[in-house]
Amino acid sequence: xxxxxxxxxxxREHADILAALVCGLLLFxxxxxxxxxxxxxxxxxxxxxxxxxxxxxxxxxxTTLFKEKELDVDLLMIVAAIGAASLGLWRREYHxxxxxxxxxxxxxxxxxxxxxxxxxxxxxxxxxxxxxPDTARVLLQGREEEVSISQLKVGDExxxxxxxxxxxxxxxxxxxxxxxxxAITGESLPVEKTVGAEVFAGTLxxxxxxxxxxxxxxxSSLIQRVIRLVEQxxxxxxxxxxxxxxxxxxxxxxxVVAGILLATLxxxxxxxxxxxxxxxxxxxxxxxxxxxxxxxxxxxxxxxIANGARQGxxxxxxxxxxxxxxxxxxxxxxxxxxTTGQVQVFQVIPLSKYTQxxxxxxxxxxxxxxxxxxxKAIVQAAADLNWVGAIQVQAIPGQGIVGIFKEQQVIVxxxxxxxQYVTNLPEELGQMAQCLEQEGKTVVWxxxxxxxxTWGHGDxxxxxxxxxxxxxxxxxxxxxxxxxRLPVFVSYQVMGIIAIADEVRxxxxxxxxxxxxxxxxxxxxxxxxxxxxxxSVAKTVGIDRVYAQLLPEDKLNVIRRLQQKYQTVAMVGDGxxxxxxxxxxxxxxxxxxxxxxVALETADIVLMADRLEKIAxxxxxxxxxxxxxxxxxxxxxxxxxxxxxxxxxxxxxxPIGVIGHEGSTVLVTLSGLRLLK
Length: 677
Prior knowledge:
Blueprint: H1 2-13, H2 15-36, H3 39-67, H4 73-91, H5 95-126, E1 135-140, E2 143-148, E3 157-160, E4 170-174, E5 177-180, H6 182-185, E6 191-193, E7 198-199, E8 204-205, E9 210-214, H7 222-235, H8 239-264, H9 266-269, H10 274-287, H11 291-294, H12 298-310, E10 313-315, H13 318-324, E11 329-333, H14 334-338, E12 339-350, H15 356-367, H16 373-381, E13 391-396, E14 400-405, E15 408-413, H17 415-418, H18 427-438, E16 442-449, E17 492-504, H19 508-517, E18 522-526, H20 531-541, E19 545-547, H21 552-566, E20 569-573, H22 579-584, E21 587-591, H23 597-602, E22 605-607, H24 614-648, H25 654-672
Parallel strand pairs: 11-18, 11-20, 18-19, 20-21, 21-22
Antiparallel strand pairs: 1-2, 1-3, 3-9, 4-7, 4-9, 5-6, 5-8, 10-22, 12-17, 13-14, 14-15, 15-16, 16-17
């Protein structure tokens, strides 16, 4: 049973080339029979070659004629072949039947080669679909049970062993491993992930076993959304292809009318005999057909889409690949695009009697209870230091945070907040803070109680529900709760300042430089941040034009003004607060953040790995696609003109015309596949 199934699958996958081979064999046997004088056998074999080799083209041509009321190239080929055979039977010049059969054979071979060429692009795209396994190991009451991916529910916990593909998106709840995300994001190096990190379907687990909790339906996974977008890109024709499609419909009608005129008028105008007239008219139908012109665009654009997908650049359709190659101006969002969007400690400046470690540990002890991004950055910077979390911590939104660390009150916050407890901020630190803020950094001040007396509130690790007492000159210190107002009669001293900065992406400056070398005329930065911070980042990455303190609608207006001057404008953003500008831009490019829903829905192009340098790659890919499309169109039109001239001068016969016509089609198709590399 296995062999018949394999044979059936093989014939289904290679039906076109098998039909062409059988057609070729029958053609050869028919020619040989005709050469030996076995006319009856030849007239049996050659029609069979016509039917087997031309069935698919005839079916498609007639379907288009009756359903869409349009003539297409397939039908023209069949008409030309049948016309040649009819002329051969009528004139008893049976070599014309051979010519018609050769036309069918070459057309069948060409179709098969085009099919294989396009399959190569299809395979590059459809390889995404084989990235996810069909089943997953689900933990049910402590036991592993293998279930279909479609049966997974949100909340299920699955087990992924070392070396296995991750079956669906989820959050790691147990384990540590490296994940190869190249198939999804284009990142060449594996990424380390542990508890709390999100993983994606179709990525490859490394050396560690993982327990993953499903947090979204399997059909909503990143890989499934990518597949849907790529499928959409395959079916949507870009403007250039739509123009060619419209052109073909009118052009086919012109060919038919011209063919009828060429088949009837020359005997009366130029004295041609009817055999020559009809033969030239049939050859005209073949050589004037725009097959190569039709193949000039879509194979190229589909190859470009497949190439981009392999590199983590997701084009929603061929139109965007066309447009990105024409971009003259690019606008970048700052936070999350030119910068990582993740703040970190840039510099720690202590006062003379303290060290950087003192300042950092004191701040981290208090901030360890905070969920604020700045607090998290400070704690991360002090992760390798030896410190313990503060107690009785209270945060004041927009100002700072206070707590008790090593039996001392510690204050962390902005200058205005700290100045409520420190009479005079050190002048030298104030100047440094001002310089850092002008560079776009956020400055956090750290102050602590000056003397180190012992608090009378019981054990250090316990919270005192009453007043916080200290026997010092008989004075009572108030509680930190509910309002952390610190006692003004206790002396506080500034320990130092911590500069926090949003990290500029490592590749940002190189990307901007590359874009300028590619000839992008205008590169601007759009941000809602203040002017000083914006100017600092722009200077670092090499952008000259900055628009700061913008609301989303302001960004939209800037894009419109750029479009008035430069026509084709790209906008690069994170796909969330930049959504209006991304939608307005000629090409919206989203930093995918490994699959932001808004990015995938709003933008035209998604950089799956958040790698800025891929923008230059996308533009280069777009420009290459435009160059190849133009080359293909020139080749296609050039062949048509040469073959038409040769036909009217009488220097080519029908088989030569077919070879020239189909050869140019295959050549143009293969030329488009250059973008796969």
